[in-house]
Every structure is written in C-alpha cells, then in structure tokens.
Amino acid sequence: xxxxxTGDSELDALVQQWLEWDKNDFTRQEIMSLAQAKKSQELxxxxxxxxxFGTAGLRAxxxxxxxxxxxxxxxxxxxxxxxxxxxxxxxxxxxxxxxxYDGRHRSDKWAKISATVCINNGIPVYLFTRTCPTPYVAFSxxxxxxxxGVMVTASHNPKEDNGYKVYWENxxxxxxxxxxxxxxxxLDNLEPQRASWDTSVVVNSQLCKDPYDEAHKAxxxxxxxxxxxRDTNNSSKLRVVYTAMHGVGYPYVLESFRAFNLNMPIPVKxxxxxxPEFPTVTYPNPEEGKGALKxxxxxxxxxxxxxxxxxxxxxxxxxxxxxxxxxxxxxFSGNELGALLGNWMWVSYRKQNxxxxxxxxxxxxxxVSSKILNTMASxxxxxxEETLTGFKWMAxxxxxxxxxxxxxxxxxxxxxxxxxxxxxxDKDGVSAAAIITEYxxxxxxxxSTLEKELETIYGRYGYHLSSNSYFICHxxxxxxxxxxxxxxxxxxxxxxxxxGPYKISSVRDLTTxxxxxQPDKKPLLPVSKSSxxxxxxxxxxxxxxxxxxxxxxxxxxxxxxxxxxxxxLDRAAAERELEDIVNNIKxxxxxxxxxxxxxxSDS
Length: 603
Prior knowledge:
Blueprint: H1 9-21, H2 25-36, H3 40-47, E1 58-61, H4 71-88, H5 92-95, E2 97-101, H6 107-120, E3 125-127, H7 134-144, E4 148-152, E5 161-168, H8 178-188, H9 201-204, E6 208-209, H10 212-224, E7 240-243, H11 250-259, E8 266-267, H12 294-303, E9 307-311, E10 318-323, E11 329-331, H13 334-352, E12 361-366, H14 372-380, E13 383-387, H15 391-403, E14 407-413, E15 417-420, H16 429-445, H17 450-461, E16 465-472, H18 476-487, E17 498-499, E18 502-509, E19 514-515, E20 533-538, E21 542-548, E22 554-561, H19 571-590, H20 592-595, E23 598-599
Parallel strand pairs: 2-3, 2-4, 3-6, 7-8, 7-9, 12-13, 12-14
Antiparallel strand pairs: 1-5, 4-5, 9-10, 10-11, 14-15, 16-22, 16-23, 17-18, 18-19, 18-20, 20-21, 21-22
InterPro entries: A-D-PHexomutase_a/b/a-I, A-D-PHexomutase_a/b/a-I/II/III, A-D-PHexomutase_a/b/a-II, A-D-PHexomutase_a/b/a-III, A-D-PHexomutase_C_sf, A-D-PHexomutase_CS, Alpha-D-phosphohexomutase_SF
Family: Belongs to the phosphohexose mutase family.
Keywords: Isomerase, Magnesium, Metal-binding, Phosphoprotein
C-alpha cells in the first residue's frame, strides 16, 4: 500500500504480511498508522519478535503485532495447538477440548476463536458461555475426559495484559516437552486460515457444547467431599467479607459456601462483578497487601467481620486477612496459609481415615515455599514432595502419585496458591475460600482465631518465618552479571561461604546443576539453564532462594528462617534475626546500588 513504507525492506515485508493476514480492523489500523508514521523502532518491537509460548502458555500486553495478544496471534496459537494435539492425541476428535475465559477485554472473543479453529478441524469443544474461574477448566478436562483445555486469562496481571493458559488431558498445566511441541507447531501454522475468523460456527455447530451446568454441579459435588463439619459450620455465626477483585469468583464462591453450609459472605459490592478496567485497584492482585484489600478492610470494619477472604480475578488464588485484638489487620502470607491449610487437611483427613498408612499420604510444595509441610511430615508420618516453582510441577507430581495409588491431600506455593485434594489439579481459590472459612468457623466457635491457630502450629513444629520480595531489573545482562558474581564471589571461582556474619552451609544452583549438599554434587530437582535460581542454606537454619521471574522483570528472593529450638529464640528474636539476614542478602548478594536494581518498596 502506498505511503506505508518505513525504508527497511525486511520490516516493510513484515508490515505487509500483517496487513494481508489480519482481519481485525482495529489492529490492522494500529500497524498501518505506525508504518505511516515511520515508527520503525516500535514496529520492530511488535513484528520482529513473537511472544514466547512456554509452560505457562502465553501472557503479554494486548495490542497489534506478533509480540502481543490480539486476534491474529490467537488464531495462530489455536491453529498450532490444534495441529499438535491432532498428532499427539488423535482421539481428540472424540474427546474434545475445553475452553474457558475470564472477564478481561477480549477473553471471550479469543476463547470463541480458539473453539472455531477446533470445530473447523472436526474437534468437538466444551466452550463455557459465561466467565468462569480458571479451576473450572482444569476440573472440566478430567470430568469430560477431554484431550486438553485452555483458559483465556492473565490472572492478576495489569488490565493491559491477557494470556492463554494450556492444560493437558490429565487436567494439569503443560510441561516440557509438550510446550516445546506446541510452540513449534504454532510456527509451522502461522498463516491464518480464512475460516478461523468466522466465530459464528460456535453458535451453529453440533460440535460445540456449553459445559457449564454439568461442570458446575459436578465441581460442587467434588468440593463438598472436602467439607468436614457441614452440620456445625454456621454455629459460630462467623461471617466473612469477600472480594472477587473485579474478577469472576463471586457467584462460584457463594455456591461453595452453600455447599459447606457456611454463613454467606458479605461482598465488597464495588469489586464483585467482572470489570476488565479494574477501577478500584492499581494491581488486581490480593497478594499486594493492604493496598489491594483497602475496600475489603473498610467493609469488614464497617460490618464487624473479623476475616476477609479474597480471590484474584480468575479465582485461582486465595488471600486471607484477620483483624487482631489491637485493631490491626493481619494479611496472612502464602506460607502462613500453607501451614494453616496443610494442618487442617491433615487433621481433618486423619479423623475420618485413622487407619490409612501415612506412607500413602502426600503433601507437596514448591522449592521456594515454606518447608513447614516437610516438618509436619516428619512429625506425623505422611510423605512430602518438593517440586520446582509453579503449580504445573506440583499438579503433575500429584497426578504421578495418584497413578501410583497414593493420596495427595494438599499442595501449595507461597504466591497464595492452594490445591486442597485432587479434584482440581491446579491451584483453586474457590474451594480454598470455603475450606479456610470452615476452618475459621470451627476455631471461632471455640473462641480461637486463625492467628492463634498459627501460633499453635509453630509451637508444635517450630517457627517457619518467611520474608519474600523482589528487585526490579529490565536489563538481562545486569541480571546475568549478578548471578555470575554469586558463582564467582570475590573473583575466587567459588560460591560465597558467608553472607555478612552468617555462615552458609550449602549451595544449590538449579541453573548450572550444582548442589554442594549432595554426595555427587548434583541437585535432585530438574535443572534449567533458561532461568537463574540459586538456593543458600545457612548454618543457623535459614534458607534463601534467589531466582528470576519467567513473566516479569523481577529478581525475586524467598527466605525462611527455622531457628534451632535449642537456641531459645522467641518469635520476636527470630524475626529480628531473619530481618538482619535479609538485609545482608540485599546488600551483599543483590548489590542494588552497584547494579542499579530497584527494590519493590521503591517501585
């Protein structure tokens, strides 16, 4: 087209191809306008690189171009996924594929586009016709015996983002080599088929079915199996405040509360309906603390409710806060909730199943999460498994254990993700909301609280105190330099032996494949050279992990202090020691001033 040349023949060819292939007038105009304005740098950013399809599927900003989420990249992704599944599991033409979506901009359209590509290839689809929580897709795959499933969501990311999360036939998120196979298949099927754009087929085709009614009924029946005190759950008169964070969770949490015979939650009305603009929160992530829970805290104070329960926008995560006697609100960390829910699942299950051998019962946590489940296991006799970071690893480990005839009671990650039982092989904020409220109801009925119960757990298993945060760094070379300096501390070719005054007893590097605590110096967990991750174990019982984020420009740190009980540290003293360890890690390992890193508190 005349007037759109940038002067760069290769870039102009990419522009021309985009304009030929894209059938969305808005994104076509976006690229055309950039070309007419000769915005070569912006066009290069958008067209010369593609979103990377990985074990989390896709997640990126919405906009025109190969590096962003838009109709055409969704058509291409769906075409690649379908062709891969047809080869990997030909029975998909009988089994079908599940599609769900959240309340973000374009989520419903992209689920329909994906379903259209399936139907055009003779594959039946289970397409939710209303917004649903992410756990409903994971649940429905196994319930309907589907070959795989997709949830269109960016979870708790900013409103400008969206994503495409893929699950395999076991109901767990995909892992390698499936992700690599799908990624290659996308590249092999980039040219959009004309029929892929016409989503009217999802209304007219016999291959398209809405799974909502059956899936919803089956999910509630499954969740009810995790209810242990239905007859007395409303006896404490406890009511909680609930926020969906402008997401999809509210109607589903209401039904789970009814299934548990809990008193109905008091909603934060401004946040219970799906709203892709997220008007009342800067970041729609309850993990961000009191800022994200500001309206919920106000509602709880106004109504006299002592507990707040919150989901993120796609309702797969759970946050909980409790009002202390001082009037302050305590927001439980993911590790603290992991301790509470792990304890509840064990005690409740054991009462109903006193004769099941402990060796057949498992709990799981990611390597950056608290090791309190491991400590519980050593006391109580059940088994504990540690996995890499991310629920895809925990869910697939749970599936593996189930196939061996084992019972998996619970899994969690410190980023407020909890899997109670194995009805859903993924984190599930809907069931976890009902379960933690049942726990609280039983505690409040006997004049106790979640905070008091946590102290009881620590009294039984020892303190497991955590401090987690991150630094922001947009330069990959700087990140690489920081980690290489840790591997060559002081130019001596060795990992550090001290961090300030604190002696390090062992080092595990899952990037290079080194673990000083193992006889052969090789780690038990899988190694990945594509990400940075080093764990330091200190002589005083503290464990610290530094790792890069796969989806954000962050270098994260996770610390947990498990002081030796014989040293007689009370909680306050242990917390002070942990704070000093973290400060030394920031100063000596991150070196923020030297490397120009931005701390979370300054961002």
